[in-house]
């Protein structure tokens, strides 16, 4: 039975899309059949982070509306075996989606994949709620600055209000010198947000290069951030991976 995991953060730009692409790639590399879904209808960009811009013809609305079966709608990654992608519709019609039809799609996904990661839209409105309608877990992505922390604290409370109890925090773009500058530690971030830590991801200028070359981060074998994501993916699978303190 597969697990449906939503990657969210109230604020835009904290690294949700980067995280979905990287964690999905890592789970696939670890041997798990993994599907990632772009849920950011209208502003979709997960295909770019995956290096799969040619695979946005079919989208999850084709499945939810019954036009296509799940397997026909999903595209396999040309670079990473076990990794599959399902795009968002290009026009924003999320308010019209029947949650029951969406739950049926997730039930189908659980039968066919080990993991499904959802790139939730920013904000806490209907797209965010729909993305969480049948989730087993919510990963909240924040950076270490105060506006992002306040935002993700509110997001955690909104996720709990939706009845989801399995929440984990991913602190992205970690730069130890910045933590020193604002006299904060990762433990302070965890205390403020009140969610168990899944991992820390270093600030990495190579992410920009990877994105523009359309190459998944995990292919850059020597990057610290690629290992940070791999450690986080292992923790998702239940492995006890010690935290790398920066
Ligand atoms: P979101 O989906 O939350 O809006 P993105 O994943 O699109 O955020 O990331 C926003 C920008 O930040 C992108 O340009 C991305 O390359 C960059 N970024 C994300 N994580 C990191 C990181 N760890 N190091 C450096 N740049 C990052
Ligand atoms: Mg995004």
Could you please describe the fold and organization of this structure?
With 246 residues, this protein is an alpha/beta fold. It has a single domain (3-236), classed as P-loop containing nucleotide triphosphate hydrolases (Rossmann fold), CATH 3.40.50.300. The protein is 40% helix and 17% strand. The chain contains 11 helices and 8 strands. The protein has an 8-stranded mixed beta sheet, sandwiched between helices. Strand 3 and strand 4 (83-86) form a beta hairpin. Helix 1 crosses helix 11. The protein starts with a strand and ends in a 10-residue tail after the last helix. The mean pLDDT is 90. Magnesium ion binds at residues 16-17, 40, 45, 119. Residues 9, 12-18, 172-173, 201, 203-204, 207-208, 211, 225 line the site of adenosine-5'-diphosphate.
The DSSP helix count reads 11
- Give the neighbour order of strands across the main sheet: 3-4-2-5-1-6-7-8
Mean pLDDT over the residues = 90
Overall geometric form:
globular
- The helix/strand class is alpha/beta
């Amino acid at each position: 039975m597969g697990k449906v995991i939503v990657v969210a953060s109230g604020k835009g730009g904290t690294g949700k899309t980067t995280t979905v692409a990287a964690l999905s790639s890592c789970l696939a590399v670890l041997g798990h059949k993994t599907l990632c879904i772009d849920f950011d209808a209208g502003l979709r960009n997960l295909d770019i982070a995956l290096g799969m811009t040619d695979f946005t013809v079919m989208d999850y609305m084709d499945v939810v509306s019954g036009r296509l079966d799940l397997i026909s709608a999903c595209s396999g990654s040309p670079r990473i075996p076990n990794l599959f992608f399902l795009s968002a519709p290009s026009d924003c019609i999320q308010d019209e989606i029947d949650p029951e039809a969406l739950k049926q799609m997730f039930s189908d996904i659980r039968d066919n994949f080990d993991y499904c990661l959802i790139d939730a839209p920013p904000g806490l409105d209907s797209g965010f709620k729909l993305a969480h309608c049948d989730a087993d877990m919510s990963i909240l992505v924040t950076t270490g600055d105060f506006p992002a922390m306040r935002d993700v604290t509110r997001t955690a409370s909104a996720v709990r209000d939706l009845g989801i109890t399995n929440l984990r925090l991913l602190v992205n773009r970690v730069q130890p010198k910045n933590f020193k500058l604002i006299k904060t530690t990762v433990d302070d971030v965890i205390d403020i947000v009140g969610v168990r830590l899944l991992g820390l991801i270093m600030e990495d200028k190579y992410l920009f290069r990877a994105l523009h070359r359309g190459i998944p981060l995990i292919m850059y074998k020597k990057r610290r951030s690629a290992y940070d994501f791999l450690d986080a993916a292992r923790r998702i699978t239940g492995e006890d991976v010690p935290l790398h303190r920066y």
